[in-house]
Amino acid sequence: LEGKLLNAGALLPLREEILALIGEGADDKSWPVTLDHVVHVVGKVMPEGSIVTLDNGLYKIPFARKYRTNHPNTLLLDNTLATMGAGVPSAIVAAMLNPGLCVMAVCGDGGFQMTSQELMTAVEQKLNLVVLILDNGGWGMIEAKQSAKGFPNYGVNFLNPDFVKWAEACGAKGTRVETLDDLMPALEAALKGGGVHVVAVPVDDSKYKRLLGGLRSPKAKPPSA
Q1: In a domain, 74, yes or no
Q2: CA dihedral 48, 54, 176, 156 (to 10 degrees)
Q3: What are 114-152's pLDDT values in tens digits?
Q4: Do the domain assignments include residue 202?
Q5: Which listed residue, 58, 102, 115, 150, has the most CB atoms within 10 A of its CB?
Q6: What is the count of structural domains for the chain?
Q7: What's the Rg (C-alpha) of the chain?
Q8: Which of 41-45, 71-75, 209-213 shows the lowest per-residue confidence on average (mean pLDDT)?
Q9: Would 78 be classed as within a structural domain?
């Protein structure tokens, strides 16, 4: 756009603010890993032009806000319908249509379990696909929304299977990330190794639970007679 946009310099302060927002939390060294740091690491390991597909959950907020793309259609998310379970099937189609590109599905533990059987489809199709599971042991978005409405948490926590064994049972590879320093190497190895690879990592989503929980909704009015 250089030389083509009148008063383009006026946009520079806005760009600086956006870049500052994107970089916020990138260097967080806490464990379990924060969602902001996950976005930063995924952005680092994914080659230019590669495709990331999102399932639906609380982590989708930082990915939608902070994941930088350089090409169209390289961050795929169904933001309006918010269909849980969409991450893995979307990634399978993306990998089938773009065999020369790296493809990663980013899923919450709950959303992954809704369509986790499709790992078999990815293996059968001999795809190169990485599935990153962000494990918080519950429905983070629903918990935050319950809190925002002043409700007690109800039905938002659940137990997870061993995702590594689950992947191996489907003929895929599996890795459980145990420390912050292991996250980037695990993703790099999964992308370079080829085939279908599941990487599970425990995450701390408390920041975004607080953000949503702080947006208190007005109390609903009783229905009119």
Answers
A1: yes
A2: 160
A3: 999 999 999 999 999 999 999 999 999 889 889 888 899
A4: yes
A5: 58
A6: 1
A7: 19
A8: 209-213
A9: yes
**Contact of 71 with 170, CB cutoff 8 Å:** no
pLDDT band at 223 (very low <50, low <70, confident <90, very high): very low
What one-letter code names the amino acid at 172?
A
Q: Any idea what the Cα angle at residue 26 is, between residues 138 and 84, rounded to 5°?
A: 30
Strand partners for 53: 76, 105
Domain that holds residue 179: 36-213
d(CA 220, CA 21): 33
The structure tokens 């952005």 sit at 43
Torsion from C-alpha of 135, 136, 141, 144, nearest 10 degrees: -170
Which residue in this structure is represented by tokens 């961050």?
A: 75
Find the CATH number of the domain harbouring 107.
3.40.50.970
CA distance 116 to 114: 6
